């Protein structure tokens, strides 16, 4: 959970166990002096649950350890709207309509061409594909071996959940209207 410029981590009983700064000390003070208008964006636990990855409205994504110290950072030209994480790296969806793949050591590995801004990203088991959903309800599959994007579905309502089924048997979507659907994947994925 984020509150102002902080990331709060709770245990399964609802007790707050961590209070981490989303921005380092000096940067946080500068942000507050400037009015603190850029919001804290999406966040997720990194694989292994030993780090938190948090996007800030200034286009920077940070990996924080359990003490709140920055271990890695990924700079973007625009704010990040969604994150997808896997043991091999992370994916970021940005306001410029591009999805970027990054290594954990900060290298940009690949990016999609300009299209609509992604709202959800999820890696398949084995990270051979990335499902990308935009705010208009278009769900695509990015084959990470070939770099090809394939349309999976065009939904009428905004997507609020996206997940791969076990063993690559399909993709599940859930919309704001409460509709849950299972989609077949292109053969090559």
End-to-end span in angstroms? 34 Å
Helix proportion: under 10%
Strand content is over 45%
> Secondary-structure element sequence?
EEEHEEEEEEEEEEEEEEE
Oligomer: single chain
Lateral arrangement of strands in the main beta sheet: 4-5-6-7
Largest sheet: 4 strands, antiparallel
Question: Mean of residue pLDDT?
Answer: 83
CA radius of gyration: 17 Å
The number of helical segments is 1
Structural class: mainly beta
Low-pLDDT parts are 26-36
> Globular, elongated, flat, extended or rod-shaped: what is the shape?
globular
| Record field, number of beta strands | 18
Task: Describe what you observe in this structure.
The chain has 189 residues and is mainly beta. 5% of the residues lie in helices and 50% in strands. The chain contains one helix and 18 strands. The strands form five sheets. A four-stranded antiparallel beta sheet has the order 4-5-6-7, with no helix packed on it. The longest helix has 9 residues. It is globular, with a radius of gyration of 17 Å. About 6% of the residues have low confidence.
